[in-house]
Design brief:
The chain has a single domain, classed as Arp2/3 complex 21 kDa subunit ARPC3. The protein has helices at 3-22, 32-43, 45-61, 69-92, 102-132, 136-142, 144-173. The chain is an all-alpha fold. 77% of the residues lie in helices and 0% in strands. Helix 2 crosses helix 7 (144-173) and helix 5 packs across helix 7.
């Protein structure tokens, strides 16, 4: 891996952590999930997972909401899923063209973001419930407003931001990344 790619990956981790601190006052509205997903999409599942884990290694330890080891480990694992699935998706869309497909791709990326966020929220809510001795169903029901905000905001962010960020990373790194072919 060349220095430009390494610098880009480090930048994704830094951007991910920084946006979490900037948005700390808005529960469950985070750009981090999107950044981790795009990191995986552009550089593969291992790099994507690493961006997610490294982000939570920093943000989770110095978390304004407090540090709970069980929740921290669950968020690291769950966040890495964005990168893994982003990487797998990027590999499967190697020859997919952006030309005349922006709306469909936006819907596709938004749907993908929704599903991954649903999985993330389910895992972290269950771990939170078990850690603090709260019935799992109660934790999930009481978490609906927060998970709904998280899922809907990720749908919007993934839908609107995926194609521009993939193109920007491709331009910075040079050549093609894993993923979309730019033909228009």
């Amino acid at each position: 891996m060349n220095t430009t790619k390494v610098a880009t990956i480090i930048s994704l981790v830094a951007l991910s952590v920084a946006t979490n601190y900037v948005l700390v006052g808005v529960p469950n509205l985070k750009v981090m999930d999107f950044i981790v997903f795009i990191g995986g999409f552009c550089f593969g599942p291992i790099v994507g997972a690493s961006v997610g884990i490294l982000t939570w290694m920093v943000y989770g330890v110095v978390n304004p909401y407090g540090f709970v080891p069980q929740v921290w480990l669950a968020t690291m694992f769950s966040e890495s899923l964005y990168g893994v699935f982003g990487g797998l998706l990027g590999k499967s869309l190697v020859s997919f063209s952006l030309k005349d497909q922006r709306f469909r791709l936006g819907v596709f990326f938004g749907s993908f973001g929704f599903i991954l966020t649903l999985i993330y929220d389910l895992i972290t809510n269950v771990v939170y419930a078990v850690t603090f001795g709260i019935p799992i169903l109660v934790s999930i029901v009481l978490g609906v407003p927060f998970t709904a905000l998280h899922e809907l905001s990720n749908v919007a962010i993934f839908s609107v931001g995926s194609i521009p960020l993939i193109r920007a990373i491709r331009k910075v790194v040079g050549g093609s990344t894993i993923g979309l072919v730019s033909t228009g």
